[in-house]
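During the reporting period the student researcher (J.K.) took over the structure-prediction task from the postdoctoral fellow and processed the backlog of single-chain submissions. One of the processed entries is reproduced below for the supervisory committee.
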Amino acid sequence: MTDPFVRAVEAVLFASEAPMTVAMIAAYVGDGDVRAALTTIEADHAGRGFGLVRRGEHWHFETAPDLAHFLRRDRDESRRLSRAAIETLAIIAYHEPATRADIESIRGVQISKGTIDVLLAAGWVRPAGRREVPGRPLAYATTQAFLDHFGLNSRRDLPGIDDLRAASLLEPIDDAFASVLESGGDSD
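J.K. obtained the following structure tokens:
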């Protein structure tokens, strides 16, 4: 017979419309080892049609990746991000919280407001407060939706320069840019 506490945690997660933290789950089920229950549920669902997944500090049930195609009725028409949007997203992800001035300084060109608007509309970046400098510019950070979309548990899972180089994803100009980043931007 399954532990009633584990069943209660499973029921709360199953009924939830959004991923939940351990504290959110505990608010429903009360005292008990929620983390141990999550580990049990995760193990019980391994290899099945759906499983318990942790993204950052949030937990939710998700269709097994190899079966997701059965649930697609219509093909989603994916919109490709512009190079400016991809670069802006990468800068925000690696340097968050980042202001428009930070992004322009790293990219070496001005960005249009529309570039950040596209990333905001996609739900991948969010305003992260204002920097305490003259003009108090708005800073941006990535969201949980960004982590979910790219299958990351946290920003620490982003690939490093060596990973990108090993995958041949850096062009020669990008290698020069990477060496500047590695040196901290010092040209002296």
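The committee noted the following: The longest helix spans residues 83-95.
J.K. will present the remaining backlog at the next meeting.
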